[in-house]
Every structure is written in structure tokens, then in C-alpha cells.
Design a protein that fits this description.
elongated, alpha+beta, single chain, 66 residues, 3 helices, 3-stranded antiparallel β-sheet, Multidrug-efflux Transporter Regulator, Chain: A, Domain 2
Length: 66
């Protein structure tokens, strides 16, 4: 249901980014990726669009490093 609305929970965000769930939580807490909260259960949520932006930035950084 959340996926249709463009949001992922921690595990899905971690899979999309190719990192561990703990890394996603840490990046969210540090403000590196925008973090939202579900209004009913307070789960951490991440917009798919925001995560795609992060992957693009990581790809650019990796290309520059080569």
C-alpha cells in the first residue's frame, strides 16, 4: 500500500539503496535522506523519489572517483 503512494519503510529503502537497514536509519537521523513518519504507527518512511536522488548522487560520486 505504501509503495503505491511512493513511500518505502526502512527495509525496502535499504534494498533500493543497497545498504543495511541500520545505515538507512543513520542517514535519516543525520539528515542525509529525508525521513517521514507514518501518522498511525510512527514507522520511518522514505519517499522513493528521494532515494532515487541519493542513488544518482552516489553513482556520480563513484564515477568521479575512477
Amino acid at each position: 500500500m505504501l509503495r503505491k503512494e511512493g513511500y518505502l519503510r526502512v527495509k525496502g529503502a535499504a534494498q533500493l539503496l543497497g545498504v543495511s537497514p541500520n545505515t538507512v536509519c543513520a542517514w535519516g537521523a543525520q539528515g542525509k535522506i529525508p525521513e517521514y513518519r507514518h501518522p498511525i504507527n510512527n514507522y520511518r518512511l522514505y519517499k522513493v523519489y528521494d532515494l532515487q536522488q541519493v542513488t544518482r548522487q552516489l553513482d556520480r560520486s563513484l564515477r568521479k572517483a575512477k
